[in-house]
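Translate structure to sequence.
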């Protein structure tokens, strides 16, 4: 029997100033790497995806989205129709970009012509009576869910596969030695209030640590406060704005620790950033919360109730740092089991 093609799809394709922000491109590339040699993978997205994938990798959908208007939702429906037609008799893995709109599209427009799996990182799309009703209308047409933990999986279905947001797919990890790391702490990635970036930046800088902050400001009201903090301390290095993949990896790899000072809505979210940090060979320092459970469970860094705890944690002892790196190597080695689990789930 001919092997089916996997279509990893983003029907929203949010175009933000000519860029795709977030996990969509890394996840699509991750699926290409995971299934290489096992089956074909096609990436499906709007015109913005042409910046990231060539014509042999990409199945282009008609529209990008620029806002959350009604017109844009109609464009998402048209993208869904095109996807369902182009991927008929194959396997669709739908990224979590616009889950409620996706459920409506599946309920109304999808007719069991493929195997359909949805990636869901959290339960926000079923956290109200109306949302649960919309989901139930689509549920019978969905073959399964790809989720970060059992709690999220059971919120949707009995048929789910637990995997990390990203799965390490390379043969080895290049880890920068302690002595070659430039910054004591890095705060890398998009900057939001609930990521706790600004309080962490001010606290660490006030204690004399060499701190890097790099990423785009996600909320307008943070713009003035962040520059006020930067101007106050000479030990802060900053790159505010879009960070490309090469710089993103460099900043993480050359920080002794990366800080994820999560609060608010980020407490219970699945966190792809923690995996970015670990897979680039850097220990995590962050808030004790469910989003960072893997750090505690696998000894990949330090979690705290209060960021002041880092002062008594002996983080810059090289032997302790090497223990964290050994745990990171072990965690990455175990990712092969996660890859096998996902492959079996999607291809069965």
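Result:
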């Amino acid at each position: 029997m001919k092997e089916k093609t996997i279509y990893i799809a983003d029907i929203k394709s949010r175009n933000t100033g000519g860029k795709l922000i977030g996990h969509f491109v890394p996840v699509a590339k991750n699926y290409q790497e995971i299934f290489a040699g096992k089956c074909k993978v096609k990436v499906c997205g709007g015109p913005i995806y042409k910046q990231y994938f060539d014509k042999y990798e990409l199945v282009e959908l008609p529209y990008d989205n620029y806002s959350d208007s009604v017109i844009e939702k109609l464009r998402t429906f048209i993208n869904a129709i095109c996807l369902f037609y182009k991927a008929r008799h194959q396997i669709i893995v739908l990224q979590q970009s616009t889950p409620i709109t996706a459920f409506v599209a599946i309920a109304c427009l999808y007719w069991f012509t493929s195997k359909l799996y949805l990636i869901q990182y959290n339960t926000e799309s079923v956290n109200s009576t109306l949302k649960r009703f919309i989901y139930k209308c689509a549920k019978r047409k969905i073959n399964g869910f790809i989720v970060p933990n059992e709690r999220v999986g059971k919120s949707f279905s009995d048929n789910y596969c637990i995997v990390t947001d990203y799965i390490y797919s390379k043969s080895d990890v290049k880890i920068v030695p302690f002595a070659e790391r430039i910054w004591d702490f890095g705060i890398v990635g998009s900057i939001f209030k609930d990521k706790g970036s600004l309080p962490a930046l001010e606290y660490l800088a006030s204690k004399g640590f060499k701190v890097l902050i790099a990423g785009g400001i996600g909320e307008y009201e943070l713009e003035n406060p962040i520059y006020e903090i930067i101007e106050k301390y000479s030990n802060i290095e900053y790159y505010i704005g879009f960070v490309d993949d090469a710089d993103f990896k460099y900043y993480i790899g050359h920080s002794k620790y990366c800080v994820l000072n999560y609060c608010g809505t980020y407490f219970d979210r699945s966190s792809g950033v923690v995996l970015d940090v670990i897979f680039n060979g850097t220990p995590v320092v962050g808030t004790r919360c469910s989003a960072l459970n893997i750090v505690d469970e696998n000894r990949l860094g330090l979690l705290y109730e209060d960021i002041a705890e880092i002062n008594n944690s002996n983080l810059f002892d090289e032997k302790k740092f090497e223990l964290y790196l050994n745990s990171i190597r072990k965690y990455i080695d175990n990712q092969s089991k996660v890859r096998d689990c996902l492959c079996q789930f999607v291809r069965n």
